[in-house]
Amino acid sequence: MAAPAVAQTPSELIVALVGMPGGGKSTVGKQLARQIGVPFVDSDHEIEQRIGGSIRQFFEQHGEEAFRDLETEVVAELLARPGDRVLATGGGAVLRERNRELLRDGATVLYLRSTPEDLFRRLKHDTTRPLLQVRDPLARLRELHQQRDPLYRRCAHYVLESARPSVHALVNMALMQLELAGLLDPARVAATVGAEPH
Fold it and tell me: Of 137, 138, 139, 178, which has the fewest Cβ atoms less than 10 A away?
């Protein structure tokens, strides 16, 4: 069954973060939501709550296709919920055209863009990501980046280069981008930009 189309109403602020695994979507998303004063949701966390286990186990037992079906369902539901929020998506969410449409139509999408080399430095000891449990994770990250970067760009309203900046700097970049887009009250942004997170 096709997921319902979502149109972001002018009164709602829904910010969705897309990007490669380990690109900082959850970390930046949590702090961004805190700064704006809205709830934070993570589609991967919601999926794990629903399946009652880890995404890695689900991948192994049911395969990627079944996982992507479930992911589309969850992303559609999270976007359809009323009220403001910041949403972090899984790294592969953009592989489905339907997900790209849902995100682009239902949220303001920020692409946190990192190089494969930066991602490798952050993820080389991470054993929880199914797509990186391979002999040469850096080669895998380069391959994924080459495949997904154009899809992230196609889906995103704004691209934030996240290779070097701190999480704090990225949050400030996101806040300023939302203000420039007319989605955040400048006074609300002025009060948060420059303030170190607690």
Answer: 139
